[in-house]
Amino acid sequence: MLDRTVTTQEAVTATPDVPPTLGQRLRQARIAAGLTQSELAESRFSKQYVSQIERDRLRPSDETLRWLAERVGVDPQYLAKGVDTRERDRLESVVVRGEAAVEAHEYGEAITILAGISDGLPPDAAADLELRALLAESWARMYIGEMREALPLLARAREIVEAPSFSDVDRAEVLFRLGCCRYRMASVTTAMALFTQALELAEDSGIPCDRLRSRIFGWRSRCYRRQRDWEAAREDVERALELAEALDDRRATADAYFLGALVAERRGQWVAARKYAERAKVLYEEIEDRANTGKLLTTLGVLTFLLGKAEASIPLFKQAFGVALEVGSDADAAQAVSSLAQVHLRTGQVELAEQQASHALDLLAGRIDFIDEIGNAQLVLGRSLLEQGRLDEAEQKFKAAEASFEQLSSASHRAAAWTAQAELAVRRGDKETAIQLYERAVEALQDFRF
Length: 450
Fold this sequence. Notes:
The longest helix has 19 residues, at 85-103. The chain has helices at residues 2-13, 22-32, 37-41, 47-54, 62-72, 76-81, 85-103, 107-114, 127-143, 147-160, 168-184, 188-204, 210-226, 230-247, 250-266, 270-286, 290-306, 310-327, 330-346, 350-363, 371-387, 391-408, 411-427, 431-443. It has 24 helices and no strands. The model is unreliable at 1-6 and 446-450 (pLDDT under 50). Among the domains are: 2-82, lambda repressor-like DNA-binding domains (434 Repressor (Amino-terminal Domain)); 289-450, Serine Threonine Protein Phosphatase 5, Tetratricopeptide repeat. It is mainly alpha-helical.
């Protein structure tokens, strides 16, 4: 019987397409084992009973399923789900490798590992592993700017978690990932609704999920920050930090401190923001997260500049740029060099600012998830051209910045573009246009700082 088990298992798993139903898989395995329906039924069942199962008119009990699997020489999981134990172990090892690559910010590697993992699997086969693979791959694609590719993966994940075998925490996780994608696509209102719905599901589930809740609070704070609701943003960051510290989760705690630094910076609390950023940097260094360490260096550079130490900020931006190149993140490199361009613009080195802003835009080409940084770089580039007397070129960049900021639905960002265009109008002697643009900027309650 052992020899036939191995032979039959190898025969059915070698078939390119796994039959989609239990009955069809049983029939395939029975034929591969060289048995008729009567021989399979033996004295335990009738031929008609086996026929009913193979035609998917009856579903056998777990005990009967195990007996049938032993008779035809396959793993019971193969009959039940279309994936035997060995194949499931193989799939799980692939998923674990993909998740580890995402955790290490090796997004291209994660996509290579996980892409198409569910191809050829029957419906509902290894659904838990498929869900994990979809979540990991979609996260990787989101971080390299492939939101259009990430969304269908999350749509499939959302279908999977509707099954009764999944919990409300699973559903909350999918909604959270969808919210992150929508936020990075500048759909802030949609993202806010998804984060709030995810939070409600998680909190009402009765299942411990504080790490997920911490992440949801953190990402929702970004939405509040974009909407300039600083108090709500601060409250969500505090909730995220409280949950992360209670879990003793250094990564989640670092993330919360990082967000706290961004909120404090936007509120003009630069000393407090620097303290938060320094705490986050220490934690990221402890867990050897080079990517986020580089991002923190850019943030510390901004805060150092805002605190009146322009020269001291430059090495921080250069370090951040180097780390971004080391980890292969063009987007992070662009943010560092764009910030450096702003420093050089404000210290009168306009030609250098032009070069750096142009470099940032090259690095961010096609990254719709960094439309705010694209707009900032366009604005810096336009101002550097304005200072060089290249008015027509400056006007083009200011209009491009306004168009970029329009996608953010951010009044403060658009106000920055209008202010720049007003300054251009003053240079041209068009006082009427300048006044109109300044008035629009004031009405938008400009709070754009850096």
